[in-house]
Amino acid sequence: MLQRVDFSFSSPNTSNSGLTSHLKNTYAMSPFRLRKNIADLDEKELNDLVLAFHLLQEEGPGTAEAPNEDSFYTIAGYHGQPFRGAGYGNRDWWGGYCHHGNVLFPTWHRAYVLRLEDALRKVSNKPNLALPYWDEFADSIVPNIFTQRKYTLPVVGEIDNPLFSYKLAQGFFDNLGRIASDQAGTTTRKVDYSKPKKYETVRCPYSGLVGEDDKAATEEYNATINEAQATERLNENVYYWLRSPATNTVPGMRQLYINAAWKAPNYTVFSNTTSAAKWNDDIFSREHEWEDDFVVSVERPHNGVHLAVGGYDMPDKDRNRKTPSQANGDMGENDTAAFDPIFFFHHCFIDMVFWLWQFHHEATENFDIIPFYPGTSPIDSQGPTPGMSADSQLNMETPLTPFRYTSRDVVNIQELGYEYKCDKYLQKDPLPPPPIDVLPLPVPPSMSRSAVRVTGISRSQRLGSFVVAIWAFPSDKEDDWAHATLVGLEPVFSRWHVPGCANCSNSLTVTLHAHLPPGSSPTGSDKFKVGDEKERKLKIMVLDNQLIKDDKGLPRKKRVLNPITGDSKVDPGPWIEVRKVSG
Ligand SMILES: [Cu+2]
């Protein structure tokens, strides 16, 4: 069991940890930092934080040969763009250092957030400074501090709020830009995710597509947004994603974080969507285990919040909500997410959820990765990062490049010099729903007599991130949306250029599982393809960026909620499988 740390000491004991040679990235081990909910910072703490972010963003990026490693540009750039290594020119690889869809997702991001915190402490000369987290359990909207344009610091005066946005100190070029055709196949257009120097990061409802072919349309679209209402729209979207409207039977991301932190049975399935999908495939095929419910990895709700801030609608029944579908904020794509300062507060929360999982599973000193399980190969989802070979096995000893740590080194956060102030989340029972809300809770497996598995939805032909939704219709009446229920939801946090070749070994399909509420499934266990008449009772929709023509006949990228086509060139499947338990 975890020993509570006495915060009065100045330096944790690392003498027996063997960590010394790996700590070169750390500004200083002491003093110990206590990471709090950003809403609980006092005025001085908030001023110190804002000043440190301001200073870090003001730092020049250095040169390609000698980057300034304590600049916001360099650190934010470790995650995705600007690409380097094999991923610069080849979509089979990943040009950023971050890990998604594999077992290194929580540990790599732990080292990443620590690197940012170290740099903040160093540039501000405040060794006590701790990065706070955006408490997504408690706050269902974006805290004010992230949405105000200006901030007034003592002595310095009014500055652009460095937590609101970041202006790129240097641009980056999308070397993987490609030609894609619109849905009718008649118009071709370059898909280009370049961003110039001084580009300012944006969130829902704004679009940040500023490549050559998109610039004009984006400016025109952004000009239609009423700035005074922009924050309201962002918050509305985030609220729906985190809480899920009561008309759905799918839980919101908040509930999924709870499932992950309290219930994921081992680190491997807790850590990422690829491993969790395999675990759930096994549960799905062994119906007597349905009492255990499907597992949730921490990566899944993490993806949902990225998409919420980036501007992807929660595809609920209330289709009259005004969140514009052309929103393309930086948080919504892997390529640029880390340039939005809110990324680090979101990931500080993810790291806290990781720590909670460790605490609830007696894994604060040690845990392991199941060898050779899906999610342990760099080609399982995103492609190998720079310098990594495609056939390497990801394990506790894999370097978390570019940081001088392995996953083993970052197991115990107290040895890394910090802790979370999160006492109320250390209780043994899973966090209850917030009392003021009527929350749709997941269908209890004991009540569900059927479940659905959807597989074969490809990432390769889709531009950027997307959302997969499963709708259940009570009758055979087609398009009876008034009575449809959203029963499954998968936020897929992706990038603009995913390997598209048939020969690529990367596994690029999405699989999702959901329990079905009573009376919402086709009769009996069955497996069928999209387009089959049985699909009428279960419709699979994909919300993604597509090339379409606008009213002037000009091709544009637009967020579209579409049924998947069943086109094997796009989706190798997709298969819908229903299993029913008798009795
Ligand atoms: Cu992330």
UniProtKB/TrEMBL annotation:
It comes from Aspergillus eucalypticola (strain CBS 122712 / IBT 29274). Residues 99-117, 340-351 form the Tyrosinase copper-binding domain. SUPFAM superfamilies: Di-copper centre-containing domain (SSF48056). It catalyses: L-tyrosine + O2 = L-dopaquinone + H2O; 2 L-dopa + O2 = 2 L-dopaquinone + 2 H2O. Belongs to the tyrosinase family. Keywords: Copper, Melanin biosynthesis, Metal-binding. Gene3D superfamilies: Di-copper center containing domain from catechol oxidase. One of its GO terms (molecular function) is metal ion binding. PANTHER family: SHKT DOMAIN-CONTAINING PROTEIN, TYROSINASE FAMILY MEMBER. GO terms for biological process: melanin biosynthetic process. This is tyrosinase. Residues 308-332 are annotated as: Disordered. Its EC number is 1.14.18.1. It is an enzyme of class 1 (oxidoreductase).
